[in-house]
Design goal:
Layout (H helix, E strand, L loop, with lengths): L2 E6 L8 E6 L4 E5 L6 H7 L4 E6 L5 H4 L2 H7 L4 E5 L3 H4 L3 H7 L12 E3 L4 E4 L2 E7 L8 E4 L3 E5 L2 E2 L2 E2 L9 H10 L9 E4 L5 E2 H7 L12 E2 L7 E2 L12 E3 L6 E2 L12 E3 L6 E2 L12 E3 L6 E2 L12 E3 L6 E2 L11 E3 L5 H9 L3 E2 L4
Parallel strand pairs: 3-4, 4-5, 5-6, 10-13, 15-17, 16-18, 17-19, 20-22, 21-23, 22-24, 23-25, 25-26
Antiparallel strand pairs: 1-2, 2-3, 7-8, 8-9, 9-10, 11-12, 13-14
Length: 356
């Protein structure tokens, strides 16, 4: 189960308006409401419950029909980027995009979205990532299988940065540091044109190439058994890290506030994830906890706002209540019936029974 995505490339400037439907519950959202016609209303069906009207950025071609949807579905929540206030309330470019058919001013949003926020559509969670560049406040919506990129990334192209609040260097950083770090097989649904994948764009996009990554850092000599409390805390040069299997104990806050840390391979002999071990690692995306670990300490992942997945083995039988405090997009992956599943249910954390 997942999202059913229907594309309607009929907005101003051939903008793609998307109808997203959670396959299991039927909950529906309109994403980038540039267009509203009989065909799109028929596709939504009479019994559809429109939960959200979602916007990736503040250009008129993407919000032209927002007010119409809001009038037709008054219970739907209009959610827009929090940092896009200038364009949403006018702007020179929005006036010419309207071509005399509107004011170029967007209706007020009932929800303002920022980095790390989530939108729950039935059983589907859409995670918000900020991707400025095409505009100063543009965002993308990410699920386990796809990413809706607005006008940040297209098939073999990128968004125009010559418009108001656009910036070329910022756009490149957003694509390289945010979008190209997503899984290669994620489907890219752009604001204009055909769909693609992250992997295809990394290989073939002529405008923004993927960064060449350096080899992972090995932080302890083979044979080392202990990494001390706070030993690497605050390091901003650590991105990909491997810890040798000889290490049996890692002290509290050993990697706290390593804000560039994205990936870490933990040692197979580790037995505890100690208090605040990864607290404040804002770029950390995925952690595979080794089999044999028995407990996860208080605030172990606090403030890991980019954390998407934590794979937890059956050996874990104790997780502190606030281990995942301020991790808005995290999903716990573990075996069904495990302690980790009951923990996820108790604290309202999304869970998937995919651990092998």
């Amino acid at each position: 189960m997942g999202l059913i995505v229907k594309t309607f490339p009929k907005g101003p400037l051939s903008e793609n308006t998307y109808i997203l439907t959670d396959e299991r519950t039927g909950r529906t959202a309109v994403l980038d409401p540039g267009y509203c016609g009989e065909d799109i209303l028929s596709a939504m069906q009479d019994d559809t419950h429109l939960s959200y009207i979602l916007l990736t950025h503040g250009h008129y071609d993407h919000f032209a029909a927002a007010e119409k949807y809001m009038e037709m579905y008054p219970s739907a929540i209009f959610a827009a980027p929090a940092k896009e206030k200038y364009l949403l309330h006018g702007g020179r470019d929005n006036k010419w995009m309207a071509l005399g058919k509107g004011t170029g001013v967007c209706p007020d949003a009932g929800m303002l979205l920022k980095e790390g926020d989530t939108v729950t559509l039935g059983e589907t969670v859409l995670r918000v990532i900020e991707t400025p560049g095409h505009t100063e406040g543009g965002i993308c919506f990410v699920t386990d299988k796809e990413v809706f990129t607005g006008d940040t990334l297209f098939r073999l192209s990128v968004g125009n940065t010559a418009l108001e609040t656009g910036d070329r260097d910022t756009l490149v950083r957003s694509i390289q540091d945010k979008l190209y770090e997503l899984d290669d097989d994620l489907i890219v649904w752009p604001g204009h044109g055909a769909a693609t994948t992250i992997g295809h764009e990394k290989k073939a996009n002529p405008f923004v190439q993927a960064k060449q990554k350096s080899a992972p850092a090995v932080l302890a000599a083979d044979g080392t058994e202990h990494i001390g409390s706070g030993e690497f805390s605050g390091r901003d040069d650590l991105i990909d890290v491997i810890i040798p299997d000889s290490v049996r104990e890692i002290g509290m806050r050993a990697f706290a506030s390593c804000t560039a840390l994205e990936n870490i391979v933990l040692p197979s002999n580790l037995r505890r994830i100690r208090k605040e071990l990864f607290s404040g690692c804002t770029a950390l995306k995925k952690v595979h906890i080794p089999d044999g670990v028995t407990d996860i300490g208080e605030w172990a992942f606090r403030g890991c706002v980019s954390l998407e997945k934590v794979i937890i083995p059956e050996s874990v039988t104790d997780i502190a209540a606030e281990a995942f405090l301020s991790c808005p997009g995290v999903t716990i992956i573990a075996e069904k019936g495990s302690y980790a599943e009951s923990y996820a249910a108790k604290f309202g954390i999304p869970f998937k029974a995919e651990y092998v």
